[in-house]
Amino acid sequence: MSAVHPKISEEKSQTIVSSTKSVTLRIKRSNPEISSEEKFDQFIVPIEKWTTVLDALLDAKSHLDHSIGIRYSCRQASCGSCGMKINGKPALACFTKISELNSNEITVEPMDNFPVVRDLVVNFTRLINNHKKIMPYVIREDSEIVPGTGVREILQTPEDVEKYIQFSSCIKCGLCNSACPTMAMDTTFVGPQALAQAYRYIADTRDKGKKNRLQIIDESHGIWRCHAAGSCSQVCPKGVDPAMGIQMLRSYLLGIRD
Amino acid sequence: MIMRESIVMKIHYGTALGAVFLVAIHIMMRMTMDFHDSLQYENVLANYEMIGYAILLELILILISVHGFNGLRVILLEMRQGQSYEKGVTYGCIAAMVALVAYGSRTIIMASMGMV
User: Fold this and answer.
1) Contact list, A219 vs chain B (CB under 8 Å)
2) Three-point CA angle A77, A82, A85, nearest 5°
3) Closest to A186 (Cβ–Cβ): which among B5, B9, B78?
């Protein structure tokens, strides 16, 4: 069931009034705490060349329906809060320009493979737990802080940094987990986000936790359940390639790499 | 004792490669005569009576059973999760694999000894 909402607020739109274009925003609405009903609400919002999906959603929330549930923060693809399915593909709302979607109708839904909290907001508990499980920090006996003498540097060559730097761009937005076909089936699969982060620390020459991390991911719902679909890498807004990280981790476990 | 998943997957990949190689030899053996003739009852029995060929068939049986039932285990584990379910799937697949290898081996041994 869907309904076109008229303008219910008298507040002025933040979008520049000169806009002549508009799009229909179809937002999937649900509140599992109250009922299992799901519906699409439609809002007609004005757009400019630079309007992002997040701008349009916030416009609809400010002027048409204050109850739209959405999570966002930085508006510049840094915080990873506004992940959602836009016209069927997982993407950051703040990083997706409406003009680039080439459509007059934009459908936004909550990310797949996450429990919905309300409307476009999903629960990140599983992602965060799996992220914590792979110990996302440098593990070593000694420290950069030396008692008495102060601070020392643990040096790395540019080549050493090159091995893991792209993986350190992960903003934990969950888009990779949302796109992953295994995550859709296997509720205990560790997921591409956590696996990519496991590789990020294993590939870091400062880290000594390789053995522990490989043991954590080498279980029946760990790395081997990845089907190498590659959709995780396709949707990452930060250019991280979890599929490649997973293959690298597999090569460690198969003894192809040291 | 629980085997690490990487060991299981090494066996999985190894059996796949082994099976491809041995099945290729098995198919090439069909080409030593007309394909239709090679499947005649007497010719099939004669194949079993060659000890080398019987060993080849036994190896194919083991490799494909191990690979196939592990593949089935993986599919079933992805379909549903739960400790008792997963245990049941794992032991069920091992039991089915052992049963299939035993039954297939019985056929190969009986045929190679001329008991059929």
Assistant:
1) 4-5
2) 110
3) B78
Mean pLDDT on A1-29: 68
Q: Which of chain A's residues have a Cβ under 8 Å away from the Cβ of B70?
A: none
pLDDT in tens, A189-208: 999 999 999 999 999 999 99
- Please tell me the total count of domains within chain A: 2
Closest-CA residue in chain A for B9? A224
Q: Whose structure tokens read 């019987």? A: B54
Question: What is A182-224 written as a DSSP string?
Answer: HHHH-TT---HHHHHHHHHHHT-TT---HHHHHHHHSSTTSGG
Q: pLDDT band at B1, cuts 50/70/90?
A: low
* Interchain CB distance below 8 Å, B5 and A254: no
Does residue A45 register a pLDDT over 90? yes
List all residues of chain B from 26 to 65 with a beta carbon under 8 Å from chain A: none
Phi, psi of A32 (to 5 degrees): -55, -25
Position A14 confidence tier, pLDDT thresholds 50, 70, 90: low
Domains detected in chain B: 5-112 (1.20.1300)
Instruction: Name the pTM for this structure.
Output: 0.87
DSSP structural state of residue A256: S
**In this predicted structure, what is the pLDDT of residue A78?**
96
> pLDDT exceeding 90 applies to what percent of chain B?
76
Q: Decide the pairing of beta strands A89-92 and A105-109.
A: unpaired
Q: What is the per-residue pLDDT across A142-151, written as a single tens digit (0 to 9) for each? A: 888 888 888 8
Q: How far is CA A207 from CA A20, A192, A197, A211, A222, in A?
A: 55, 20, 13, 11, 21
A53's enclosing H/E stretch is: helix A53-63
Give me the domain span that covers residue A118. 2-122
Tell me which chain A residue has its CA closest to the CA of residue B74: A225
Would A82 be classed as within a structural domain? yes
